[in-house]
Amino acid sequence: MTRRFLYASLAGCLTMAAAIAISQEGPGPAAGRTPQQRAEATRTFLGLGPEPDKAAAALGDPVFQKNCAFCHGANARGATAPSLITSDVVLDDEHGEKMVPFLKLGRPDKGMPAFGTIPDDQLKDVVEYVHLQVEVVANRGTYQIKNILVGDAGKGKEYVDAHCTSCHAAGSFDHIATKFRSPDQLQHGWVWPVQPNNDKDAITANVKMADGSTISGRVTQVSDFRITLVDGAGESHTIDRVPGVDVHLNDPLAAHEQIVMTLKNDDMHNVTAYLETLK
Fold first, then answer.
1. What's the pLDDT score for residue 199?
2. Quick check: is 147 in a domain?
3. How many domains does the chain have?
4. What is the secondary structure of the chain as a DSSP string?
5. Is 268 within 8 Å of 262 (Cβ atoms)?
6. Which of 142, 169, 186 lies at the terminal end of a domain, its last residue?
7. Does 227 share its domain with 125?
8. Is residue 173 part of a domain?
9. Does residue 223 sit in the same domain as residue 163?
10. Average pLDDT in the chain
11. Residue 18 has pLDDT above 50, yes or no
12. Which domain holds residue 164?
């Protein structure tokens, strides 16, 4: 997948990505990571290319505002001229190697003047400013959720008692808030927890083959077409899910997936407020 296609897809699906939030990156960044680590992990996962030079972008900001913002908008998201966030020229560039020559020539036939009188170093700063605007839109790992503790802790406890204690033993939530850096990470952690990376809590499967034999073990890959699991002896098996093959999955987090389908905003905020008190 090219960066051009990836960036354009991210920008075009911005609203959906906001709703899915971190989960559009698979299981999402680990709850213990710093904001910088989350941003770097997201950039690597999505193939967003080099991190924009923020110092250069700060120098390029006033140059952009003076020469480009009238047409392309203050944040490069479009005005009388198109948005630069999904521009092929921008997305194919990394640190000005393509953008600077383009800016020096312009597109006079389409109404874009040449900027040949602006020094190359200033044009590179402008390019970094534009790349930073793309980063702001595309890299969901840079987002910080604020003012999240708006729920009723008492109602949150009622929800936990009604929906969670059938799976979680008494005391399993003790000090849970201390395991996360911030309330938004706590909320993400309980609404959509990361699959445990151990054999005890991993997804397992019992597979009945067409000849009647069975294979059981820890699932390492699964799709609608095949499943790969590791049995108790450590041997890996890849099985095509063809007619006659019956796969029964055992997912410790299945209940969380079911809760997500019916979870209301108020319940989510209430539970988070309650869990935040358990320090």
1. 64
2. no
3. 3
4. --HHHHHHHHHHTHHHHHHHGGGGGTT-S-TT--HHHHHHHHHHHHT--SPP-HHHHHHHHHHHHHHTHHHH-TTSS-SSS--STT-HHHHT-SSSTTHHHHHHH-BGGGTBPP-TTS-HHHHHHHHHHHHHHHHHHH-GGG----S---S-HHHHHHHHHHHTTTTSPTTTTTTGGGGSSSHHHHHHHHHSPPPPSSTTTS-EEEEE-TTS-EEEEEEEEE-SSEEEEE-TTS-EEEEE--TT-EEEEE-TTHHHHHHHHH--HHHHHHHHHHHHT--
5. no
6. 142
7. no
8. yes
9. no
10. 84
11. no
12. 153-195+255-276
Check whether residue 98 and residue 136 sit in a common domain.
Answer: yes
- The answer to whether residues 24 and 65 belong to one domain is yes
Residue located via tokens 């499943």: 227
Give tens-digit pLDDT for 111-135.
999 999 999 999 999 999 999 998 8
Residues 64 and 80 in one domain: yes
From CA 137, how far away is CA 86, in angstroms rounded?
10
Question: b/e string for 120-134 if b means 16 or more Cβ within 10 A?
Answer: eebbbbbbbbbbbbb
Whether 148 is covered by a domain: the verdict is no
